[in-house]
Amino acid sequence: MNKLISKEIDITVAIPTFNGEKRLPIILEMILNQTGVDNLNWEILVIDNNSSDNTYEVIQKYQKDDFYQLPLRYILEPQQGAAFARITAVKEAKGKLVAFLDDDNLPAADWLISAYEFGKLYPQAGAWSGQIHGNYEVEPPEEFEKIQAFLAIREHGDKPFLFDANNLRLPPGAALVIRKQAWYENVPSQPILTGKLPGILVQGDDYEPLLYIHFGGWQIWYNPEMHTYHQIPKWRFEVEYLKSLARGCGLCICQLRLINTAKWQKPLIMAKTFLGNLRRLIQYSFKHRSELESNLITKFEIEFYRGSMMSPILSLNYYITSFLGKLFDKQGLQS
After folding, report:
1. Domain count, the chain
2. How far is 314 from 219, CA to CA, in rounded Å?
3. Which domain holds residue 82?
4. Is residue 4 situated within a structural domain?
5. What PANTHER family does the record tag this protein with (predicted)?
6. DSSP 179-209
7. Mind listing the pLDDT tens digit of every residue in the chain (335 residues)?
């Protein structure tokens, strides 16, 4: 299956996965049966993010299958976290474009050609994403549409538009296409937001590279012709998971706002973020005080505001740790 081809690769489909042995066969079949790609030169790259199941054996089986004359490569990224998997994917991809798909985000039959054609039509686009629909194992809770974007459900209509990156209105990392040039020119090799701290889930690792790309002068677009279907199991509607997700999405807010901010402005951003979200937390808690214990969506939003309020403390901890690390390194060199 890994047939050598001399032509330049147009686009790489990159699938970061963790313990995906059951999910990978489904998404691989859907990718391998994409339509309209006869004139494309493309490849599939699976990034195994330190799985402990039979992910490698699943990929080996597909690599030995000669039915699909398409390069399928496997890369192990032992450092846990989606941010590291994406960095490895861009580094290893041979395509000018890298089309990310999470292993639980299933593409429509024309997803790949729609992604590729959009890149040709909008040469200033550094990244673009499309419609992400929910495929739910159980019925979502009432008023779920208020928080569905936090679970990477994005249905913004049938017209292309530019995302408002300055106000952190950006697409998720699932089903995202990036232009490799835009990434290499702007995204640091070491991310700040890596998904997890000890005992704490911190989101934002998919927004961080997009902000670097945006501030580098590239555009971030919505392409309504790209459709994927996010598989949402019932456990994602459990209270503790949703509260953890909301908290993690809030905790990254300050750090994202500090990207491309002048040093003298950073204390102001931190103070503004803390005080602004403290005000929102108090106002929201008072307005919805009768629902605080009974309404799942209210619990989610309260936790998001609480995480956002605490996000400057997380940012301050990062800068102190980074400063001390550099100081100790300098002293070590001098000694």
Report:
1. 2
2. 29
3. 11-235
4. no
5. GLYCOSYLTRANSFERASE, UDP-GLCNAC:BETAGAL BETA-1,3-N-ACETYLGLUCOSAMINYLTRANSFERASE-LIKE PROTEIN 1
6. EHHHHHHH--SS-S--SEETTEE---TTHHH
7. 444 445 789 999 999 999 999 999 999 999 999 999 999 999 999 999 999 999 999 999 998 876 667 899 999 999 988 999 999 999 999 999 999 999 999 999 999 999 999 999 999 999 999 999 999 999 999 999 999 999 999 999 999 999 999 999 999 999 999 999 999 999 999 888 887 666 678 899 999 999 999 999 999 999 999 999 999 999 999 999 999 999 999 999 999 999 999 999 999 999 999 999 999 999 999 999 998 888 999 999 999 999 999 999 999 988 887 766 666 665 655 55
